[in-house]
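Kindly inspect both lines:
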Amino acid sequence: MSSKVLLVNDLAGYGKVALSAMIPILSHMRYEVCSLPTALVSNTLDYGKFEILETTDYMKNTLQVWDTLGFSFDAVSTGFILSKPQTELVLDFCRAQKQKGALIFTDPIMGDEGKLYNGVGEETIALMRELIGAADYIVPNYTEATYLAGVPYNRDGSTREELYGIAEKLHSMGAGSVLITSARMLVDGGWCPISCVVGYDAAEGQPFVLPYEELPVRFPGTGDIFSAVFMGHILGGKSLKEAARAAMQTVSGMLAKNADLQDKYKGIPLETCLEDIVL
């Protein structure tokens, strides 16, 4: 019997991000996928004009219904969360599910490229620190990792020791295994930073770094693709490093395949790319 996973994330009406990206991937990987939208979003935010409907009341009522019906999940993945009440609701739910044996995956979506997203402040960071403390696996990007760990953001790259220090600090804050994406590591005396994913494997008690070649193309939703493939492989029994490599290879292949698409704001057209998922 396949594992039953719950995805807590926003749902875009136009574009392949968040739930619209993760559901087809995990379904293709043969998981039973359920979803709890944190918001209904008209389209990907890259278009510059959008409408967002927060769904906190719906979430609260839905979780009460599910509890009454006795629904349970083998894993819960959290992504975009809009407010303090919503974060507290998700945190309480994840803690309860973890006590029942579910694995908790958290992508602490707060910012990128050294900046926090609009509306994200110190209160959000503090709440997200609580949420990662309840997670078995967290997948922040480098920007989010620095804010969560309370360390400076280094635009020009960080040393291996600095990156390992961030990953280990996040683990010490209660997170299980840690993967930091979109990191840049200084090598060869600091003149040539390489793109990499930095990990801390709670099972082995060891940090590691996985370099990759950065492609000169950007699509929204690649972080969601990474998280979904990574989660699928962890639930399938792969190690942290194996799951991270599979997710990296999947994203890289999909980016290369779709590099010439005109409207990149829609995200990667996953309907044509499911066979490219590294299994």
Summary: The helical segments are 19-28, 56-69, 84-99, 122-133, 142-149, 160-172, 222-235, 240-257. The first helix runs from residue 19 to 28. Residues 230 and 244 are 6 Å apart (CA to CA). The domain at 4-276 is CATH 3.40.1190.20 (UDP-N-acetylmuramoyl-L-alanine:D-glutamate ligase).
